[in-house]
Amino acid sequence: PGSLAAAQALGAVAARAAKGDEVWVLLSGGTTSLIGAPVDGIPAEDLSRLYALLLGSGLDVTAMNRIRKRFSRWGGGRLALALAPARVRVYLVSDVIGDDLASIGSGPCVPDLATAAEVRGLLQRSGLWEQIPETTRRQLRQAEAGRIAETPKPGDPAFARVTLELIASNGLALEAAAKRAAELGLDPVVSDTPLAGEAREVGASVAATLLQDHASRSVPQPERRHCFIWGGETTVTLGSLPAGLGGRCQELALAAAGALAGAPSGVALLAAGTDGRDGPTDAAGAIVDGMTWKAMAAAGRDPARDLVAHDAYRALDAAGALLRPGLTGTNVMDVVIGVS
Predict the structure, then answer these.
(1) Which listed CATH number (3.40.50.300, 1.10.3720.10, 3.90.1570.10, 3.40.1480.10) goes with 170-339?
(2) Yes or no: is domain 2-168 CATH 3.40.50.10180?
(3) Residue 218 has what pLDDT?
């Protein structure tokens, strides 16, 4: 209800914009949900069902936004269309890999490059076409047939007076983390490859990097300790069975804990969402080391089973490994930091 009301209020504001006005749009990750009203012809419950299917599909955020913007009242350039011919200045906080401006918040003031046919193809390739509500399938077919308007494309006059400026991103967050690591006497190593793919696989991979680096260090005069810093956004593909509680950062951390089990003291990993909330939980993520896996088992959990059941929250909580900083008020994807 709050999201629908916000979308309606935005419509009232947009209707007041005139040619001589200047409108500032402050845009960040989460916008898609915060103003999540559907386009005409799609009930709100069908939009919610579509979003839920996408979240469990394993698609990355760019692919999900390519689909979501098609059915969102303000996505895919439609806000720019409503504000025209006013001058519009958009300031963006990026929560997508590569800072694709059309993907942030479903691109309300950016041309939509994807056609209805391309969105249908994406849904079919991902196995979602037959699962999405019939109203959404019908909307795509009508757009393909020209019976309803396509989303605004490049060259549309609606974008003639729109300017876009990126003011925060995952890359800037990684730079800040590296600076702080150096201040603490660590040797920062920032990855230039964004994290992507299945969270559990990424967790095992980054843990292996830490273990390999630790093993390569000489004693008794070890080099300055390394601080590996990654950024990006992984995915969690849910199966047909009911899932437990957690989020992608917690699942990554749980998988890493398994790979780090028994690791030497001082080897540790943090995985957290920069918004302070990972999945539908009160935790941003978790901090794990060589003792975490054993601690979970000692607390009565079966961490291997929890990993399969996507129940990372309860497993990590049992070991006191969850990170709960509270909401940060921003979102620039996830950060993973490892010390070896």
Answers:
(1) 3.40.1480.10
(2) yes
(3) 64
Q: Could you give the CA distance from residue 205 to residue 161 in angstroms, rounded to a whole number?
A: 45
Series of mean pLDDT values for 10-residue runs along the chain (340 residues): 92 96 92 90 95 88 90 96 97 90 92 97 96 97 96 97 96 96 96 95 98 82 83 90 92 98 96 96 98 98 97 98 94 95
Domain boundaries, the chain: 2-168, 170-339
Q: Which two tokens stand for residue 159?
A: 């974008």
Q: What is the pLDDT of residue 222?
A: 58
- The structure's pTM equals 0.76
